[in-house]
Design brief:
Two copies of one chain form a homodimer.
Chain A lengths: L1 H30 L6 H8 L3 H4 L6 H12 L13 H4 L4 H14 L3 H13 L4 H28 L8 H24 L5 H18 L9
Helix pairs in contact in A: 1-2, 1-4, 1-7, 6-9, 6-10, 8-9, 9-10
Chain A binds a DNA duplex through helix 1 and helix 3.
Chain lengths: 217, 217
DNA sequence: TTGACAAATGAACAAATGTTCATTATAATG
DNA sequence: CATTATAATGAACATTTGTTCATTTGTCAA
């Protein structure tokens, strides 16, 4: 009976709860958490502010829920659909795939909003910093490191510091992603930045790949 | 040259105005503009909030003044002490110098606060976005582009797209700078990130430099 | 000293904001 | 149907916040 009732209440109640989260994310990501009022959120859904408190203890809990969602969002699970033990065998095209995944994040509204929320609260919210650092930065750099280590063993790329390579590969992607978000805010063209994702992979690969023997031909 | 004479010539008022800007920057950069109250600012100086309005029309004007200061701050004039027409002759050590300048920004409290302010308001304040884009990003990337173009002509580095190189050189520096700021917020060690500044230059240079002839010896 | 002027104070205000709560509406369940 | 749990409403609240203003304080020049 407990499960049943929980399921039922979830299915009907969660509709507004989801709406709240969705609209709150939109507002937080564009105005910032502090500047967004509970009346803003309620108003954007079409309910009164007091109704929010049937679903969340307070305004902070809405943010906390969104932050928690971050840990399972696509911007944090860039590599989860790939098998690490085989990753290192594909070489450059693998890197291109990662860069493309990264790039595509900005074209999904939900992910873009999460990214903007992340960026805006990063300097004020320690919990967000934890998530950013642990799930977004460390996790991805660690996976990249493993990939590069594998590539080195297979002699696909030159032997060097895998952690450095991971950072060098990751940081431009992050930066270009940020640039795209910023340009979109002002409705400017993003094409020149978007093209940098691929060019970055090319440039990076040229540096790390094992040189073919010059005397082969 | 002592306090007294300064006090006497410049009226006491301008000193308070500077204090306001200094403390406001500190507070804005740590709590964000919206979350900082005029009482916070006044309190941190030791005056009453109403006294602020003898120096600034309102809270927004304080932020605007700080934003304006950004355009002439060190985080925006990274290259201003160098002569562009000669820059391209130094090669790798020039790049190392730029990276070091970048790195050192985070060790000056004023610059670090400006950087944090910039990052926090970037997604909400169009004027800051303009300044960031024009003075911080475009300006520096343009100068870097010119440097790389020169290096290519001198055949110090391989011929390729100077603008891409500029972005590839700039973006990790930016990212590492951000990482340092974030780590400092939580009083964590920054040494591993700080070392990435130099390693980045090494890695970058290996990719772009003109290969020496292998058969020389 | 006196007069003038900038700066600081204390008190107050209106608006905005997060939150509570008693009441009403809604919908599923026995 | 009646019951019961959940959701939404309207009204209210205590605070917080930006700002104003009349008054006082301090400083320098005449």
């Amino acid at each position: 009976m407990d499960e049943q009732s929980v399921n039922n209440t979830l299915s009907k109640g969660s509709k507004t709860k989801e709406k709240i989260l969705k609209h709150a994310l939109k507002l937080f990501s564009s105005k910032g958490f502090k500047a967004t009022t509970v009346r803003d959120i309620a108003g954007s859904i079409g309910i009164k502010q007091s109704a929010l408190y049937n679903h969340f203890k307070n305004k902070d809990e809405i943010l906390e829920t969104l932050i928690q969602d971050l840990t399972t969002s696509a911007i944090v699970t860039l590599f989860d659909n790939k098998d690490p033990s085989e990753l290192h065998k594909e070489g450059k095209s693998l890197l291109m795939g990662i860069a493309t995944t990264f790039k595509l994040l900005s074209f999904d509204g939900q992910n873009e909003a999460l990214f903007k929320l992340l960026m805006q609260e990063l300097f004020r919210n320690e919990r967000i910093r934890e998530i950013y650092n642990e799930y977004f930065y460390q996790e991805n750099v660690k996976k990249l490191s493993g990939i590069f280590f594998g590539m080195m063993q297979e002699e696909v790329i030159k032997s060097s510091d895998p952690l450095l390579l991971a950072n060098e590969f990751f940081s431009p992607l992050f930066f270009y992603q940020m640039q795209v978000s910023l340009l979109k805010l002002d409705k400017k063209s993003t094409s020149s930045v978007v093209s940098l994702f691929e060019k970055h992979v090319e440039h990076f690969w040229d540096n790390v790949k094992v040189e073919k023997q010059a005397s082969l031909f």
